Amino acid sequence: MEGLGRRVLVAAFDGWNDAGEAASAAISMLREHGEYEPIFSVDPELYFDYQYTRPTVVVDPQGHNTIKWPETTIFRPVHPTRGTQLWLLTGVEPARAWQAFASEIIDVALREDITGLVGLGSMMSDVPHTRPISVFAGSDNEQIRVALGLEKSTYEGPVGILSVLQDAADRAGIATAGLWASVPHYVAGHSPSPKATLALLDRLEDVTGARIPRGTLATDAAAWEASIDAAAADDEEMTEYIHQLERTRDTWDSPEASGDAIAREFEQYLRHRGGGDGKPGRDDPRR
Q1: 228-280, pLDDT tens digit by residue?
Q2: Which strand (E) or helix (H) includes residue 135?
Q3: How far apart, in Å, are the Cα atoms of 221 and each of 133, 213, 235, 241?
Q4: Are 76 and 87 in contact (CB under 8 A)?
Q5: Which of 90, 240, 255, 287 is most buried, taking the most CB atoms under 10 A from its CB?
Q6: How do strand 7-14 and strand 85-92 relate by DSSP bridges?
Q7: What is the reported pTM?
Q8: Which sequence spans correspond to the domains of the chain?
Q9: What is the pLDDT of residues 5-46, one digit of tens each?
Q10: Spatial CB neighbours of 202, under 8 Å, sequence gap ≥ 6
Protein backbone atom coordinates (compact mmCIF):
# COMPACT_ATOMS: atom_id res chain seq x y z
CA MET A 1 0.00 0.00 0.00
CA GLU A 2 1.30 3.46 -0.87
CA GLY A 3 2.74 5.19 2.14
CA LEU A 4 3.89 2.65 4.72
CA GLY A 5 4.69 -0.15 2.29
CA ARG A 6 3.92 -3.85 2.58
CA ARG A 7 5.99 -4.79 5.63
CA VAL A 8 4.76 -2.81 8.60
CA LEU A 9 5.89 -3.05 12.22
CA VAL A 10 3.07 -2.26 14.67
CA ALA A 11 4.28 -1.22 18.13
CA ALA A 12 2.51 -0.85 21.48
CA PHE A 13 3.82 -0.79 25.04
CA ASP A 14 2.34 -1.30 28.48
CA GLY A 15 2.47 1.70 30.77
CA TRP A 16 2.53 5.43 30.02
CA ASN A 17 1.34 4.98 26.41
CA ASP A 18 -1.53 2.60 27.22
CA ALA A 19 -4.58 4.18 28.92
CA GLY A 20 -7.32 1.60 29.40
CA GLU A 21 -4.91 -1.03 28.03
CA ALA A 22 -6.31 -0.13 24.62
CA ALA A 23 -3.04 -0.22 22.65
CA SER A 24 -1.57 -3.37 24.22
CA ALA A 25 -4.92 -5.13 23.78
CA ALA A 26 -4.83 -4.29 20.08
CA ILE A 27 -1.50 -6.10 19.73
CA SER A 28 -2.87 -9.03 21.73
CA MET A 29 -5.82 -9.27 19.34
CA LEU A 30 -3.49 -9.40 16.34
CA ARG A 31 -1.37 -12.10 17.97
CA GLU A 32 -4.36 -14.21 18.99
CA HIS A 33 -5.85 -14.22 15.50
CA GLY A 34 -2.67 -14.68 13.51
CA GLU A 35 0.38 -16.95 13.43
CA TYR A 36 3.53 -15.24 14.65
CA GLU A 37 6.97 -16.30 15.77
CA PRO A 38 9.26 -14.33 18.10
CA ILE A 39 12.43 -13.21 16.38
CA PHE A 40 13.99 -10.83 18.89
CA SER A 41 13.73 -9.87 22.56
CA VAL A 42 15.74 -7.19 24.34
CA ASP A 43 17.95 -8.05 27.30
CA PRO A 44 15.82 -7.05 30.31
CA GLU A 45 18.93 -6.34 32.42
CA LEU A 46 19.77 -3.41 30.15
CA TYR A 47 16.47 -1.60 29.98
CA PHE A 48 14.11 -2.36 32.87
CA ASP A 49 14.02 -1.21 36.49
CA TYR A 50 12.82 -4.23 38.44
CA GLN A 51 11.62 -2.10 41.35
CA TYR A 52 9.28 -0.37 38.92
CA THR A 53 8.45 -3.34 36.68
CA ARG A 54 8.95 -6.37 38.86
CA PRO A 55 9.50 -9.91 37.57
CA THR A 56 6.71 -12.32 38.45
CA VAL A 57 6.47 -15.95 39.48
CA VAL A 58 4.43 -18.30 37.28
CA VAL A 59 3.67 -21.97 37.83
CA ASP A 60 4.15 -24.29 34.85
CA PRO A 61 1.89 -27.31 34.11
CA GLN A 62 4.27 -29.54 36.09
CA GLY A 63 3.90 -27.34 39.17
CA HIS A 64 7.36 -25.78 38.98
CA ASN A 65 7.84 -22.10 39.76
CA THR A 66 9.43 -20.00 37.02
CA ILE A 67 10.51 -16.35 37.12
CA LYS A 68 9.02 -14.36 34.25
CA TRP A 69 11.06 -11.25 33.47
CA PRO A 70 9.80 -8.05 31.84
CA GLU A 71 10.32 -8.18 28.10
CA THR A 72 9.89 -6.44 24.80
CA THR A 73 9.66 -8.76 21.79
CA ILE A 74 9.30 -8.51 18.02
CA PHE A 75 7.07 -11.08 16.33
CA ARG A 76 7.19 -12.00 12.64
CA PRO A 77 4.23 -13.40 10.67
CA VAL A 78 4.82 -17.09 10.02
CA HIS A 79 3.16 -17.28 6.60
CA PRO A 80 3.94 -14.74 3.87
CA THR A 81 0.99 -13.21 2.04
CA ARG A 82 0.62 -11.11 -1.08
CA GLY A 83 -0.85 -8.11 0.73
CA THR A 84 0.42 -5.97 3.57
CA GLN A 85 1.96 -7.98 6.41
CA LEU A 86 2.24 -6.85 10.00
CA TRP A 87 5.16 -7.49 12.32
CA LEU A 88 4.38 -6.87 16.00
CA LEU A 89 6.42 -5.16 18.70
CA THR A 90 5.04 -5.41 22.21
CA GLY A 91 6.18 -5.35 25.80
CA VAL A 92 7.00 -3.05 28.69
CA GLU A 93 8.12 0.53 28.21
CA PRO A 94 11.84 0.59 29.12
CA ALA A 95 12.99 2.50 32.18
CA ARG A 96 16.41 3.54 30.89
CA ALA A 97 18.77 3.68 27.89
CA TRP A 98 15.97 4.60 25.49
CA GLN A 99 18.29 5.55 22.63
CA ALA A 100 20.11 2.23 22.79
CA PHE A 101 16.75 0.43 23.08
CA ALA A 102 15.42 2.19 19.97
CA SER A 103 18.63 1.44 18.05
CA GLU A 104 18.30 -2.28 18.78
CA ILE A 105 14.70 -2.34 17.60
CA ILE A 106 15.45 -0.39 14.42
CA ASP A 107 18.42 -2.65 13.61
CA VAL A 108 16.08 -5.64 13.68
CA ALA A 109 13.49 -3.77 11.61
CA LEU A 110 16.08 -3.02 8.95
CA ARG A 111 17.20 -6.67 8.87
CA GLU A 112 13.56 -7.65 8.36
CA ASP A 113 13.18 -5.13 5.50
CA ILE A 114 10.45 -3.30 7.39
CA THR A 115 9.04 -0.47 5.26
CA GLY A 116 6.78 1.24 7.80
CA LEU A 117 6.21 1.56 11.53
CA VAL A 118 2.90 2.37 13.22
CA GLY A 119 2.89 3.24 16.91
CA LEU A 120 -0.33 2.52 18.82
CA GLY A 121 -1.10 4.53 21.94
CA SER A 122 -4.04 5.53 24.09
CA MET A 123 -4.44 8.54 26.37
CA MET A 124 -6.86 9.65 29.05
CA SER A 125 -9.05 12.47 27.73
CA ASP A 126 -12.13 14.51 28.60
CA VAL A 127 -14.37 12.55 26.23
CA PRO A 128 -17.68 10.71 26.75
CA HIS A 129 -17.83 6.92 26.58
CA THR A 130 -21.15 7.14 24.69
CA ARG A 131 -19.68 8.65 21.53
CA PRO A 132 -17.33 7.09 18.95
CA ILE A 133 -13.77 6.91 20.24
CA SER A 134 -11.67 9.50 18.44
CA VAL A 135 -8.26 8.40 17.15
CA PHE A 136 -5.59 10.93 16.33
CA ALA A 137 -3.67 9.68 13.28
CA GLY A 138 -0.49 11.58 12.57
CA SER A 139 2.94 11.51 11.02
CA ASP A 140 5.98 13.81 10.89
CA ASN A 141 6.55 12.76 7.27
CA GLU A 142 4.75 15.07 4.83
CA GLN A 143 4.57 12.44 2.09
CA ILE A 144 2.96 9.96 4.46
CA ARG A 145 0.49 12.59 5.65
CA VAL A 146 -0.55 13.37 2.08
CA ALA A 147 -0.73 9.72 1.02
CA LEU A 148 -2.77 8.57 4.03
CA GLY A 149 -4.64 11.72 5.00
CA LEU A 150 -2.90 12.06 8.36
CA GLU A 151 -2.28 15.08 10.55
CA LYS A 152 0.89 16.69 11.88
CA SER A 153 1.21 16.87 15.63
CA THR A 154 2.13 20.23 17.18
CA TYR A 155 2.66 18.76 20.64
CA GLU A 156 5.67 19.88 22.68
CA GLY A 157 6.52 18.24 25.99
CA PRO A 158 7.38 14.91 27.63
CA VAL A 159 7.12 11.85 25.39
CA GLY A 160 6.93 8.09 25.72
CA ILE A 161 9.04 5.41 24.09
CA LEU A 162 6.77 5.40 21.01
CA SER A 163 7.94 8.89 20.07
CA VAL A 164 11.59 7.94 20.54
CA LEU A 165 11.15 4.81 18.46
CA GLN A 166 9.34 6.66 15.67
CA ASP A 167 12.08 9.30 15.58
CA ALA A 168 14.74 6.59 15.24
CA ALA A 169 12.74 4.90 12.47
CA ASP A 170 12.34 8.17 10.56
CA ARG A 171 16.09 8.79 10.72
CA ALA A 172 16.68 5.25 9.44
CA GLY A 173 14.43 5.83 6.43
CA ILE A 174 11.43 3.85 7.71
CA ALA A 175 8.09 5.61 7.18
CA THR A 176 6.17 6.12 10.42
CA ALA A 177 2.70 6.97 11.66
CA GLY A 178 1.12 7.18 15.09
CA LEU A 179 -2.42 6.29 16.17
CA TRP A 180 -3.67 7.54 19.56
CA ALA A 181 -7.09 6.68 20.95
CA SER A 182 -8.81 9.02 23.42
CA VAL A 183 -10.11 7.02 26.40
CA PRO A 184 -12.60 8.59 28.84
CA HIS A 185 -10.50 9.53 31.85
CA TYR A 186 -13.22 8.54 34.32
CA VAL A 187 -12.91 4.88 33.30
CA ALA A 188 -9.40 4.61 31.83
CA GLY A 189 -7.73 3.65 35.08
CA HIS A 190 -10.30 1.13 36.23
CA SER A 191 -10.81 -1.42 33.46
CA PRO A 192 -9.76 -2.29 29.89
CA SER A 193 -11.47 -0.23 27.19
CA PRO A 194 -12.42 -2.55 24.30
CA LYS A 195 -14.19 0.29 22.49
CA ALA A 196 -10.87 2.15 22.25
CA THR A 197 -9.07 -1.01 21.14
CA LEU A 198 -11.64 -1.49 18.38
CA ALA A 199 -11.19 2.12 17.24
CA LEU A 200 -7.41 1.65 17.04
CA LEU A 201 -7.73 -1.52 14.99
CA ASP A 202 -10.23 0.12 12.62
CA ARG A 203 -7.79 2.98 12.00
CA LEU A 204 -4.83 0.61 11.70
CA GLU A 205 -6.63 -1.19 8.88
CA ASP A 206 -7.23 2.16 7.18
CA VAL A 207 -3.59 3.25 7.22
CA THR A 208 -1.95 -0.10 6.44
CA GLY A 209 -4.44 -1.80 4.13
CA ALA A 210 -3.92 -5.04 6.06
CA ARG A 211 -6.87 -7.23 7.02
CA ILE A 212 -7.32 -6.74 10.75
CA PRO A 213 -9.15 -9.25 12.99
CA ARG A 214 -11.65 -7.81 15.49
CA GLY A 215 -12.74 -10.96 17.33
CA THR A 216 -15.53 -10.18 19.80
CA LEU A 217 -14.49 -6.55 20.25
CA ALA A 218 -17.78 -5.12 18.91
CA THR A 219 -19.75 -7.11 21.48
CA ASP A 220 -17.22 -6.37 24.22
CA ALA A 221 -17.37 -2.65 23.42
CA ALA A 222 -21.17 -2.60 23.67
CA ALA A 223 -21.04 -4.42 27.01
CA TRP A 224 -18.36 -2.01 28.27
CA GLU A 225 -20.48 0.99 27.36
CA ALA A 226 -23.58 -0.55 28.95
CA SER A 227 -21.70 -1.27 32.19
CA ILE A 228 -20.61 2.37 32.46
CA ASP A 229 -24.16 3.52 31.73
CA ALA A 230 -25.42 1.34 34.56
CA ALA A 231 -22.80 2.64 37.00
CA ALA A 232 -23.49 6.28 36.07
CA ALA A 233 -27.25 5.84 36.40
CA ASP A 234 -26.86 5.72 40.20
CA ASP A 235 -24.71 8.86 40.32
CA GLU A 236 -26.46 12.11 39.36
CA GLU A 237 -23.25 14.12 39.35
CA MET A 238 -21.53 11.63 37.07
CA THR A 239 -24.57 11.49 34.77
CA GLU A 240 -24.59 15.27 34.40
CA TYR A 241 -20.85 15.32 33.83
CA ILE A 242 -21.16 12.75 31.03
CA HIS A 243 -24.02 14.74 29.47
CA GLN A 244 -21.79 17.83 29.49
CA LEU A 245 -19.03 15.89 27.76
CA GLU A 246 -21.58 14.69 25.18
CA ARG A 247 -22.76 18.26 24.48
CA THR A 248 -19.18 19.43 24.08
CA ARG A 249 -18.31 16.56 21.76
CA ASP A 250 -21.47 17.06 19.68
CA THR A 251 -20.66 20.75 19.31
CA TRP A 252 -17.14 20.00 18.10
CA ASP A 253 -18.41 17.37 15.67
CA SER A 254 -21.22 19.52 14.26
CA PRO A 255 -20.44 20.57 10.65
CA GLU A 256 -22.15 23.91 11.14
CA ALA A 257 -20.38 24.72 14.40
CA SER A 258 -18.59 28.06 14.31
CA GLY A 259 -15.45 28.86 16.24
CA ASP A 260 -17.46 31.12 18.57
CA ALA A 261 -20.00 28.38 19.27
CA ILE A 262 -17.29 25.88 20.09
CA ALA A 263 -15.57 28.41 22.35
CA ARG A 264 -18.82 29.13 24.24
CA GLU A 265 -19.54 25.44 24.70
CA PHE A 266 -16.02 24.76 25.90
CA GLU A 267 -16.11 27.67 28.35
CA GLN A 268 -19.37 26.28 29.75
CA TYR A 269 -17.72 22.89 30.10
CA LEU A 270 -14.78 24.42 31.98
CA ARG A 271 -17.08 26.30 34.33
CA HIS A 272 -18.89 23.04 35.06
CA ARG A 273 -15.57 21.46 36.01
CA GLY A 274 -14.66 24.40 38.21
CA GLY A 275 -12.02 26.06 36.07
CA GLY A 276 -9.04 25.16 33.93
CA ASP A 277 -7.18 26.71 31.05
CA GLY A 278 -8.77 24.62 28.30
CA LYS A 279 -5.42 23.40 27.01
CA PRO A 280 -4.81 19.80 26.03
CA GLY A 281 -2.96 17.68 28.55
CA ARG A 282 0.77 17.26 28.18
CA ASP A 283 0.33 13.69 27.00
CA ASP A 284 -1.97 14.73 24.16
CA PRO A 285 -0.28 14.26 20.73
CA ARG A 286 -2.76 16.65 19.11
CA ARG A 287 -1.38 19.55 21.06
Answers
A1: 999 888 888 899 999 999 988 888 777 665 555 545 555 554 555 454 443 33
A2: strand 135-138
A3: 11, 15, 22, 21
A4: yes
A5: 90
A6: parallel
A7: 0.86
A8: 7-219
A9: 999 999 999 988 899 999 999 999 999 999 999 999 999 999
A10: 135, 212
